[in-house]
UniProtKB/TrEMBL annotation:
Residues 48-195 form the HhH-GPD domain. PROSITE patterns: ENDONUCLEASE_III_1, ENDONUCLEASE_III_2. GO terms for molecular function: 4 iron, 4 sulfur cluster binding; class I DNA-(apurinic or apyrimidinic site) endonuclease activity; DNA binding; DNA N-glycosylase activity; metal ion binding. Its cofactor is [4Fe-4S] cluster. This is Endonuclease III. It comes from Janibacter cremeus. The gene is nth. [4Fe-4S] cluster binds at C197, C204, C207, C213. SMART domains: ENDO3c, FES.
């Protein structure tokens, strides 16, 4: 796409869908990287993932959920005991507070169950649209777009929207990509942000959607230097991790 030409809504939709299909081809295995067995576990894990990595959250949640498996257990947990379990995730006092309150609200308002509706989820303490959409999409199979820091940055770089506000990004991108794809769209864009289109040094020279990206060149364009910037299973020598 030429940056100095105004793109029609139809051309934007076509380009966005092409980019999504290509990213899906690049990351067919993209998925929610938080471990969970039920909606409650995913809801709590997503709340804990603020300001830390999914890997760190996955390290503490087995102990958390085996000690306090239900919303009622979480609501009545001993605060200092839970703080010790959550300590590795950072901000552990605030996170313990959030989990205790979340458990109490689920017991009080939803019989201890996680409600499968956006409007109910966002009323829970510490739960915003991002968390709600993660839970809807991955625990209930209800399509949702998760606008985290990666999704917002990439949507703007790829020229899908100029919006900064996450809710506006969600609606703008939701209008470009069919609803049934929204959950997978969130996964592949977030995977791309973590592996290739980094905040500081995007690997433009190794990017499969570079030909459609108006921001091509904001990062490293030399193919070899760009390939060296790729992370996780795309990092040089890590191909075996692609499953
Ligand atoms: S070309 Fe560069 S800026 Fe555009 S999506 Fe790829 S890595 Fe990101």
């Amino acid at each position: 796409m030429s940056a100095d030409r105004v793109e029609s809504p139809l051309a934007l939709t076509r380009r966005a869908r092409r980019m999504y299909r290509t990213l899906h081809g690049q990351y067919p295995y993209a998925h929610c990287e938080l471990d969970f067995d039920n909606p409650l576990q995913l809801l709590v894990a997503t709340v804990l993932s603020a300001q830390t990595t999914d890997v760190t959250v996955n390290r503490v949640t087995p102990a958390l959920f085996s000690r306090w498996p239900t919303a009622a257990d979480l609501a009545s947990a001993d605060r200092s005991e839970m703080e010790e379990v959550l300590r590795p995730t950072g901000f552990f006092r605030a996170k313990t507070n959030s989990v205790l309150k979340l458990g109490a609200a689920l017991v009080e308002d939803h019989d201890g169950q996680v409600p499968p509706r956006l409007k109910d989820l966002v009323k829970l303490p510490g739960v915003g649209r991002k968390t709600a959409n993660v839970v809807l999409g991955n625990a209930f199979g209800i399509p949702g777009i998760t606008v985290d820091t990666h999704f917002g940055r990439l949507s703007r770089r790829m020229g899908w929207t100029d919006e900064e506000d996450p809710v506006k990004v969600e609606h703008a991108v939701g209008g470009l990509i069919p609803r049934k794809e929204w959950t997978m769209l969130s996964h592949v864009v977030i995977f791309h942000g973590r592996r290739t289109c980094h905040a500081r040094r995007p690997a433009c020279g190794a990017c499969p959607v570079a030909r459609w990206c108006p921001s091509y060149g904001v990062g490293e364009t030399d193919p070899e230097a760009a390939a060296a910037l790729l992370k996780y299973e795309l990092a040089p020598g890590a191909e075996a991790k692609r499953v």
